[in-house]
Structures are given as C-alpha cells and as structure tokens.
C-alpha cells in the first residue's frame, strides 16, 4: 500500500483500525498486541525487500521506489501469545518523503535503520536518519537496531563489519548483517529478536479481534511478483 499521493488512505486505515479496536474491546474479543516498527534508511538499501521477506518469506522480483510509506504486517506466536508485527516501510528518497507526516511516527515501538553494505554513502547517511528520528520525537527508550543489507554481494563490500559494529556500539544499538535475497540470512530471526525484546518490555498498547485483520499483505503480494 503506497501512501505517497494516497497518504490520507493510511490515515483513514489507521483511524478505522483504531475505531474497530476500541469497538471490539467493548465487545470483549480476544486481543493481540501490535508492535509498530518503522524501517528507515537511504533509497535502494533494500527496506522494501527486507520487510517483504519477513512478511511473505519471499524476495520480490522487482520493486519500485517507495512513495511515502508502505505498510506490511505479519502475525506471529511468541510464547503462546499472538503478536502482530506491523512494519512501516518508509521511502528513502527525499522527494517521496514529503507526504510522510508526524502521524507516521506516532506510537512507534521500534526503529530499524538499514544501510547497504555495498554502498558506503548509505552507511554515512545513517546519522542523518538518526537525527530525523530525534526530530520526530522518537524517544531514546524506543529500541533501535542497525541492519546492513545485501550480504550476498560478497565481492562488492564497501562497509567493513567492524566499522559498522563500532558505529552501532556508539549508539548502543545491536547490529546485524543480512540479505533480503538469501533465504538463509536470518531476516526472520532479526525481526523476531526485536519482537521478543518488545514483548518482554512493552505493555499492551493496541488490540483487535483475531478475525478483524486488515489484510494488506495480499495487496503487497500483488504489487511485487515473488521471486521465490
Ligand atoms: N543483491 C541484493 N539485492 C537486494 C537486496 N535487497 C534489495 N535488493 C535490491 O536492491 C534494490 C532496492 O531494493 P528496495 O527494497 O526497493 O530498496 P528500498 O530501500 O526500499 O528503496 P526506497 O523505497 O527507494 O527507499 C532492488 O533492486 C532490490 O532487488 C539484497 O539483500 N541483495
Ligand atoms: Mg522501498
């Protein structure tokens, strides 16, 4: 679901989600915790592919630059509890971020900063993304992780692991290198680790009945043919 020109649609969707949540609470449906995780970084680093990989287990054959914010979600079971992981895949290109409003940064539970290990500029751009989060008043308590993507391109590495690790340490963030393209590069484990961390730290924030899911994944699937 691209929300550049259709930014209002996300606002509407989120409002209707919140409305359905509050009405469902009063009818006593069972609840699922929702974790909103925002994914940020330069254009072309693979934010869309990473979120797509986690939510569909596939690598998209082709992607287009994200406009505004795309939204994907997956429900997982952690220690017997249903947890809905919402990934907010943001545009890296400045001209496509104009439609991103303060609203997108509301109630963020975690931030994933992504760079491309084959592109030094995307690594050097990270402080600006960290600063942007600060400007949108994302609290320092919100867990953050650093993800270096495109590990499969071993011959083109520009960002050494120890350099990235030092940077992550200086911001007290865990750092992972991975590949959205390779099935065995632990994309799943990265997001699940974050979800486990959130589950053990966050109180119940949002809830909705099990059969009241807004199925955006199916829309995502039709947008990008799966390369698996
Ligand atoms: N080799 C390789 N290519 C990747 C990987 N992840 C993404 N790509 C490619 O990198 C390009 C950009 O991927 P996207 O996921 O669209 O990048 P993005 O960060 O969402 O870009 P914006 O939406 O413009 O911010 C595409 O051609 C992908 O196929 C990866 O892990 N390995
Ligand atoms: Mg994208």
TrEMBL record:
**Reaction catalyzed:** GTP + H2O = GDP + phosphate + H(+)
Where is this chain's protein located in or outside the cell?
Answer: Endomembrane system
Any Gene Ontology biological process: Rab protein signal transduction
Q: Does the keyword RNA-binding apply?
A: no
Q: Mind listing the UniProt keywords for this protein, alphabetically? A: GTP-binding, Hydrolase, Lipoprotein, Membrane, Methylation, Nucleotide-binding, Prenylation
One of the record's GO molecular function terms:
GTP binding
What is the membrane topology listed in the Swiss-Prot or TrEMBL record? Lipid-anchor
Q: Which cofactor does it need?
A: Mg(2+)
Q: Which SMART domains match?
A: RAB, RAN, RAS, RHO
Q: What InterPro entries does the record tag this protein with? A: P-loop_NTPase, Rab33A/B, Small_GTP-bd, Small_GTPase
* Any GO CC annotation of this UniProt entry: Golgi apparatus
Q: Does the keyword GTP-binding apply?
A: yes
Under which EC number(s) is this enzyme classified?
3.6.5.2
Enumerate the Gene3D superfamilies for this protein: P-loop containing nucleotide triphosphate hydrolases
What protein family does this chain belong to?
Answer: Belongs to the small GTPase superfamily. Rab family.
Q: What is this protein called?
A: small monomeric GTPase
Originating species? Hymenochirus boettgeri (Congo dwarf clawed frog)
């Amino acid at each position: 679901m691209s929300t550049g020109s259709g930014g209002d649609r996300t606002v509407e969707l989120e409002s209707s989600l919140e409305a359905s949540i509050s009405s469902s609470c009063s009818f006593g449906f069972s609840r699922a915790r929702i974790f909103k995780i925002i994914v940020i970084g330069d254009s072309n680093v693979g934010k869309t592919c990473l979120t797509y990989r986690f939510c569909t287990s596939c690598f998209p054959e082709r992607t287009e630059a994200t406009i505004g914010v795309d939204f994907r979600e997956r429900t997982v079971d952690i220690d017997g509890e249903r947890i809905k992981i919402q990934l907010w895949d943001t545009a890296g290109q400045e001209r496509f971020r104009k439609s991103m409003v303060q609203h997108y940064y509301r109630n963020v539970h975690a931030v994933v900063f992504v760079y491309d290990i084959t592109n030094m500029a995307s690594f050097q751009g990270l402080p600006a993304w960290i600063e942007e989060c600060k400007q949108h008043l994302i609290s320092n308590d919100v867990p953050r992780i650093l993800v270096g993507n495109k590990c499969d391109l071993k011959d083109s590495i520009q960002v050494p692991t120890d350099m990235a690790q030092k940077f992550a340490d200086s911001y007290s963030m865990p750092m992972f290198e991975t590949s959205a393209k390779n099935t065995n590069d632990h994309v799943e484990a990265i997001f699940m680790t974050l979800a486990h961390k959130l589950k053990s730290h966050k109180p119940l924030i949002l809830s909705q009945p099990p059969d009241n899911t807004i199925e955006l994944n199916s829309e995502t699937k039709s947008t990008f043919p799966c390369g698996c």
